[in-house]
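yo, Spore coat protein CotJB is done. seq:
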Amino acid sequence: MNQREMLNSIRVYQFCAVELNLFLDNFPEDKNAKEDYNKVSCKLTELISAYEKNFGPLTNFGSAYVENPKAWVNTPWPWENCSREEE
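structure:
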């Protein structure tokens, strides 16, 4: 998976996690939703780990271990990754 595909997968799993979390707020005893949420959370954690290992940190809020503190500012910013054709 390239950087763009991996970032898109992270966004998809983040969306699913939020939606499942909202669902569980209303139906906290739903076993299937709990299982789905745990699976999505596990996959999301794996994806974020792999992304940060290969491409650098996603955030600068202390949630990721970083060997090079300058990596956050040395990689392109999100708006620098988009070309006009994709907008």
